[in-house]
Amino acid sequence: VQLQEWGPGLLKPSQTLSLTCAVYGGSITTSYYYWSWIRQPPGKGLEWMGVIGYEGSTRYTPSLNGRTSISRDTSKNQFTLQLSAVTPEDTSVYYCARNTGPWEYDYWGQGTQVTVSS
Predict the structure, then answer these.
(1) What is the pLDDT of residues 50-93, one digit of tens each?
(2) Rounded to a whole number, what is the largest CA-CA distance in the chain?
(3) Using one digit for the tens of pLDDT, what is the confidence trace for 4-52?
(4) Contact of 2 with 108, CB cutoff 8 Å
(5) DSSP track, the chain
(6) 81 HSE (CA, 13 A, CB side)
(7) What is the rounded distance in angstroms from the CA atom of residue 40 to the CA atom of residue 53?
(8) How far apart are CA 74 and CA 54, in angstroms?
C-alpha cells in the first residue's frame, strides 16, 4: 500500500486548505480500515486531525473547532482534507495515513509542507 498526498504549499491567512491523499495498492473502502490526516507543526509533535472510515464515517479532533472536513472519492480511491480559515499556526507538514487501530498506523504518505503566511 502506498499513500501520496498533495496540495498547495503556500496559503494566505483565512483561506481554505485542501489536501488530497491518493491510495495505491489497497482500497479505501476495504473493511475495516480507517484513513487519517495528521500534521506536525515545526518543532512540535504529531497532531491527529481527523479520520474517514471504510464506510464513509468521519471523526475530527475538537481542538480544530470545527474547521476540518474530510471527504472521499471512491472512484479515484482518494480522500481529501479541508481546513478552513487557516492561520500561520496551521503551518505544518501534513500526512495521510492508514489506521490499524486507534493511534496506530501502518502506512503513511511522504508528507507535504503547508505554509500559511501573508
Answers:
(1) 999 999 999 999 999 999 999 999 999 999 999 999 999 999 99
(2) 42
(3) 999 999 999 999 999 999 999 999 999 999 999 999 999 999 999 999 9
(4) no
(5) -EEEEE--SEE-TT--EEEEEEEESS-TTSTT-EEEEEEE-TTS--EEEEEEETTS-EEE-GGGTT-EEEEEETTTTEEEEEE-S--GGG-EEEEEEEEEETTEEEEE---EEEEE--
(6) 31
(7) 22
(8) 10
- State yes or no: cis peptide before 24, omega within 30 of 0: no
Quick one: cell of 36?
487519517
**Of how many residues is the chain composed?**
118
C-alpha grid cell for residue 88? 500561520
